Amino acid sequence: MKWNVIIMASIILLCTAALGQMNSYSTSTPGGAPTPSTPTSPESLGLQAPTDLTTSGQTPSLQERSKGLMSASEGAAYASAPSGLKSTASSPIYNQVIVPSGGYVQNSLYISYAPQTVASCDLYANLPLWMKTSKTGNIWFYEWYPSGALDTQYAGNVYSPGWYKRWFIADVPGWHILQYYCNGWSNYIYIYVNGPSGYWVSPNPSPSPSPYPYPYTNGHITYTYPSTGHTYNPYIYK
C-alpha cells in the first residue's frame, strides 16, 4: 500500500512538472533589449483558437519586406475590421486586452486589424500587426513560440508617437504570443497558427526557423522573411 502511494505521488509530480514545462516561457533577451514579464499562457486564459481564420488580402510589398517597421494611420488599422468589430465592446473574446503584471500598458498592439488581439490563421499566412505608440524611442519586438522559446528583434526607432505597422509570418503551428516595447510595454496578442502534422516545429526558433520539407506537389517555392532577410526554401514534391 505504501509503495502504491509513493508511485501515485511520483506520477502526479511528473504530470505537474510536464504541465509546467508546457506553459514555461523564456524571458531571456539579447543585450540591450528590455526583459519582458512572463506572459500568461492561452490555456490559463481559457483561450480557444477562433474557428473563423483571419485572412488578409494584403501581402508584404517588396519595399515592406525590406523594412521591419512602417508608418501607418489609425484609419488604416481599423479599415479592414468588420463593421461589428470596430468597437472594443464587440466580440470581447477576440478583443481582450491582456497586459503584463502591473495591469497598465502605454502602447497598443493589434493583429490583422484594430482592435483584434486574438486570432487564428493558416501556416505561412502573412498578417499585418498594428502598433499605437504613446512615446518615441527604440522598438523591441517579442514573439513567444509554441515551445516557449522567445525570439527578440530590434524593429527600429520611432521619432514621433503614433501608428506603425509590421508583419507577422505564421512559420510554426501552435500558439504564438507577441508584444513590443517602446519606452513602455504593449499588451499581448495571441495568434493560433493552423498547420498539418508533419511540418517541422522549431524547439528554438532563433535565429531563422525554416519549414520541414513536406510532400504536397511538384515544385519549389522560396519565401523571404521580411524583417530579417532570411530565406526559406521548402522543397515540395509528390
CA-based gyration radius: 19 Å
Number of domains: 1
The CATH architecture classification is: Sandwich
What shape does the CA trace take?
globular
Strand content: 25-35%
- Helices and strands: which structural class? alpha+beta
* DSSP strand tally: 11
Low-confidence blocks of residues: 4-22, 86-90, 201-238
User: What do the pLDDT scores average to?
Assistant: 75
Element-level helix/strand string: HHHEHEEEEEEEEEE
H/I helix tally? 4
Helix content, binned percent:
10-25%
Fourth-tier CATH superfamily name: Macroglobulin (MG2) domain
The CATH topology is given as Immunoglobulin-like
Name the CATH class.
Answer: Mainly Beta
Terminal-residue CA separation: 57 Å
User: How can the largest sheet be summarized?
Assistant: 5 strands, mixed
In order across it, which strands form the biggest sheet? 3-9-8-5-6
Kindly describe this structure.
This protein is of the alpha+beta class. It has a single domain, classed as Immunoglobulin-like. It is 15% helix and 26% strand. The chain has four helices and eleven strands. The strands form three sheets. The chain has a five-stranded mixed β-sheet with strand order 3-9-8-5-6, with no helix packed on it. It has a four-stranded antiparallel β-sheet with strand order 1-7-4-2, with no helix packed on it. Strand 8 and strand 9 form a beta hairpin. It is globular. The C terminus is likely disordered.
In short:
With 238 residues, this protein is α+β, with helices and mostly antiparallel strands. The protein is 15% helix and 26% strand.
Element layout with pairings:
Blueprint: H1 2-22, H2 42-45, H3 62-65, E1 70-71, H4 74-79, E2 108-111, E3 118-122, E4 126-133, E5 137-144, E6 150-158, E7 162-169, E8 174-181, E9 189-194, E10 223-224, E11 231-232
Parallel strand pairs: 3-9
Antiparallel strand pairs: 1-7, 2-4, 4-7, 5-6, 5-8, 8-9, 10-11
